């Protein structure tokens, strides 16, 4: 499956862009007339240059740095996103200077001024906090209002609505029922807390986006443009394409590698899916299944080191641990996700008797690597500096610089010295503009989430919710424990059942919120609201953070708003809802593993009380459980399965992932009769295949 062959068979660049914009509101930019287009591009380029320079030569004071980044972002959001409807080319007029509606100019300028106001009064800020001036309250009100509208334009209604509900809770808390009641705060105090302190808009969330995430978004854009993503796809084709159901396995492996630099589920789906989905359909996978494979694989990008989207960098700030700790903790759970998808596509291929790709369709691994090895240099530089203990933004600085160096070398080899520098400058401009553009929505969301987090710290609602959830879970736990008391052995004690039900409730909230909110914003809200719940039950902070993070990501393939699955269905021309349901089934490994590492924290490698015995028991049990659950879903282990065998394997899967040796042994015992019956059929099938090959 050579690159040329795939591009002819897959989507064009224009089709890929249109598909990504259709399903991802964060990249649904409006077309601009020439003059305004150049102005916007220049501002985007300047924002990237600012971050590239400060990453290498020093970050300014926190409030100034965050305010500058937010000011640029708010202005650019109103230049880049329309207020309503589809993005169409604007027409000029007296109320549309340069083709942009006057109201958008007002919002862009007022948002930028309000964002820069706090850094401007920083020297007097200590005297203003708690006793704001009228101008402080006015500026804060303007920023909150502009931020709500900017986030609505860039991401839709869900997050602004949640933010408004939290603000209403802060203002009218005295009217709330029961444990949720609090004295309430007047508007002056709300604005003071959200605008003038580091607990709100200018808090950790905005700081992480402006200090770390922007640089890695820019790195991912540039690394993809120099060909690193295509190298990953071609290497995956060479390594896995020849096996049964080869294109599906290529999809899983290439999505894992591309996701390590992308961090975006939808972008990953469109990039690799435009190549792998047509190939999967061609060898016999159903259209909805091909779409589901790509979507389930691509959502793994946000949990795959070393980039992991924005969340890895948020974790290092909230947990106060080095990035290497986060990346190490992510290794085994990320492997489990891709292992689960790979097992299911393999079983589906065996059940359908699907072939792999022929030798003529496959690239040669050494040839691919020899032609594209230079594109791996930036990733090597990035990872080496990260693992050496330097700051993430310095690693991103050198990674971006390496991308630019590779770009120049590539243009020298393609065009010669006369046009290489001009071409490199053009591509650098384009990459910096696109990288900054892709950061707009996540910055707006992070700043607005700062409003939500500010309300949580102002009112203490996080601990109130934690008390409510643990109380309900505790009642359920006592009921279940009493119901199971007739058994001759104890499955779990009451605290264990309480934790299990708390995790289930937390997971449901994460998935429901993730249906309309991007992963980064979902994670920030959930650590403010859900992390206190798990902390009350003794869950280690890093474990709690990973739990809510994984379930937030799962929303990308969970109907009814499974955006990654719907994008893949658009490529496959498949039923979107059917693709979403199948993608959720393929991603069941990601749904099981968070429960495993809560009850067996050693799976994350870097937790307190780590033990190798617990690690191996949890890892092997999780792998076996994922395999058995996949077999039950696919209706195939070594041969077609009977109904009772599927039921046995489903129950065995749950027992195998349970953090208990007795449960694991019971699960293994349930598997035994299925294996005993299926093995002879496997031998007969292999004998028939060999006989057919000899006859041919």
From TrEMBL:
Membrane topology classification: Multi-pass membrane protein
Localisation: Cell inner membrane
Record carries keyword Transferase: no
GO cellular component, one term: plasma membrane
MF annotations from Gene Ontology: transmembrane transporter activity
InterPro entries: DctM, TRAP_DctM-Dct_fused
Residue ranges of the TM segments: 35-55, 67-85, 105-122, 129-148, 154-172, 201-222, 318-343, 364-387, 393-413, 434-458, 494-516, 523-543, 549-571, 591-610, 616-638, 650-676
Residue intervals of the TRAP C4-dicarboxylate transport system permease DctM subunit domain: 143-606
One Pfam family hit: DctM
Keywords linked to the UniProt accession: Cell inner membrane, Cell membrane, Membrane, Transmembrane, Transmembrane helix, Transport
Keyword Lipid biosynthesis assigned: no
PANTHER family: BLL3936 PROTEIN
Role description: Part of the tripartite ATP-independent periplasmic (TRAP) transport system.
Protein name (database record): TRAP transporter, 4TM/12TM fusion protein
